[in-house]
Amino acid sequence: MALDVDAIRAQIPALKSGSARFDAPGGTQTPQPVIDAITEALANPLANRGRTTEGERNADGIVADARGALGDLLGTEPRGIVLGRSATQLAYDLARTLAKDWGPGDEVVVTRLDHDSNIRPWIQAAEAAGASVRWADFDPATGELLPEHIEAVLSPRTRLVAVTAASNLIGTMPDLPAVARLTHGAGALLHVDAVHYASHAVVDPAALGADTLVCSPYKFLGPHLGVLAARPEFLETLRPDKLLPSSDAVPERFELGTLPYELLAGARAAVDFLAGLETEAGGTRRERLVASFAALEVHEDALRGRIEQGLAGLDGVTVHSRAARRTPTLLFTVAGLSPAEVYRRLAERGVDAPAGTFYALEAARHLGLGDEGGVRVGLAPYTSADDVDRLLTALASLTTG
Hints:
Layout: H1 5-10, E1 20-21, H2 32-43, H3 54-74, E2 81-84, H4 87-98, E3 107-111, H5 120-129, E4 132-136, H6 147-151, E5 158-164, H7 176-185, E6 189-193, H8 205-208, E7 212-215, E8 226-230, H9 232-235, H10 261-275, H11 285-312, E9 317-319, E10 329-334, H12 339-348, E11 351-352, E12 355-356, H13 361-366, E13 374-378, H14 385-400
Parallel strand pairs: 1-11, 3-4, 3-5, 5-6, 6-7
Antiparallel strand pairs: 2-8, 7-8, 9-10, 10-13, 12-13
C-alpha cells in the first residue's frame, strides 16, 4: 500500500503556490473535487429542505449524502451525525445541554493536553451549573497522558471526562479505550476531541469508547464546518435549546438554523477523496477509508521519521513531541530564536511551518513554553519527500547561520 503523492498533489490547486506546506494541523489545502462539489451545489437550485421543488430535493439530498459520508468516516450511523459551524461551537452546544442535569457536587474532568475547545466549554458549563472541575495533567517530559492520570481525578461524582484522541500541539495519542473503561466505570460520559486524530487515523467511536466525538472536515481536505458523532439513542435522551418550529427529530434538533448545503457537499467530496487515496482498495466506502488511512499512516510515518532524524542532527533544536504513540506532528523550539522568528525565517525560504500554542494553551504552558509555544510541523496526504528536504535545509541554514 503506497500513496501516489504526485497524483494527490496534482489535484490540489493551492500547492501551485510553491510553498512546502507543514501547516496542515491548522487546516489542509483543498482538492479540486471538493471545490467542484461546492461549486456544483451552488450552481444548482437550492431551497430549504423538502421534497416538493427541485431546490428542496437538492438540499435534502446534499444533507443525506453528507451524513452518510461522514458516518462512514466516523464509524457512526447517519442519524448520529450532527452538523454545525465548528467543533468548538458543537462542544459549547453539547456542554450547555449536558450541564442542564449537573449541579453542586458534580464533577467534570478536563486535561492539560487538550485544545482549549475541549477545555473551556466544559469549565464554563460546569461553573454555570455549580459543578466542580478537576484537571488531569500529562507528563511534560514524555508528552504522555496516561490512563492513571485520568484515574487519579475520577470519583463517584464525575459526570463527564473530556479528552483528546490526539494532541493538536504535540501529537500525543492517549490510550482512549483504557480511559473509556475507567470513565464508564465511574459512571461518567466520555467526550472525545478527534479534530486532529481524524486527519490521520480511522475513527471508531465504539472501539475508542467515546460517547460523543467531534471533528472538523477542514482538517482532512474538506471545507470549514464541524461534526459531532454519537449514538442516535444517546442523542434522543438530550434536550438542547431550539426554536419552537424547528424539527425535534434526531439529529436535526441539535442543528440551529439552515445548514450550509454547499459546504456539506464539499465535506462529502472530501470523504470520497480520502477513500480514494489507496487506489487499489475496493469494497464499501468505509472499507476503502480503512485501506486509505492504512496507506496514509505508512506514508506519514516514513516522512515523520526523516524529519525527526534531521532535527536530531541540528544544534539547538529541542523537539517536544515525544509520546510513544503520536500523529505525524512535531513541535520544536530553536535556542536563541523565538518561535515567531523561526516561523518568519522559514516562510522567507518558502516553508510554511507556523508558530504558537495553536489554542492548546494549557499544554504549551505545562511544557514550559509559555504563551509563545513552539514551531509546529504537521504532515498531510500531499506532503512530499521534497517538502521534507526543503524544511530540513531551511532549518539547517537557520541553526548554522
